[in-house]
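Figure 3 (text version): structure tokens given as input.
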């Protein structure tokens, strides 16, 4: 038997093809057998207000695909990834970007979403550093 196997914590919520499903009071597992089912763990969802950065927008775009609110435009997402990959040039980020592109080409938006989400803390840190440098300091 193959398919997407999900292990859910008690009361964890997931979105499957637009329906929110909540696990029972105990840890449980489910297997989604239907190919191309759109699944999003609610704990992985990001709020639209958090989609104000380049990676945040990519992540939110993929989330809309997972919720069924948008079609996957692989070319546009890969183009956005190529743009941001010129900034996050460390080896780890580059490996994640390549994995994201592979997932997109294989029509695996859930995998791509999870991978992009891993890079959000790095992006946040870099933006905070940039803000610190742009704030003038007073000489005492």
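Below: residues designed for each position.
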């Amino acid at each position: 038997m193959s398919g997407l196997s999900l292990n859910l914590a008690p009361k964890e919520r997931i979105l499957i093809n637009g329906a929110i499903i909540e696990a029972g009071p105990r840890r449980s597992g489910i297997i989604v057998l239907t190919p191309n089912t759109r699944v999003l763990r609610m704990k992985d969802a990001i709020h639209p207000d958090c989609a104000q950065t380049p990676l945040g927008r990519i992540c939110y775009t993929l989330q809309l695909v997972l919720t069924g609110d948008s079609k996957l435009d692989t070319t546009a997402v890969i183009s956005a990834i190529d743009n941001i990959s010129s900034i996050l040039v460390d080896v780890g980020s580059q490996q994640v970007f390549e994995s994201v592109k592979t997932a997109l080409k294989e029509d695996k938006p859930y995998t791509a979403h999870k991978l992009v989400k891993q890079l959000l803390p790095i992006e946040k840190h870099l933006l905070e550093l940039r803000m610190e440098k742009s704030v003038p300091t007073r000489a005492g």
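The radius of gyration is 18 Å.
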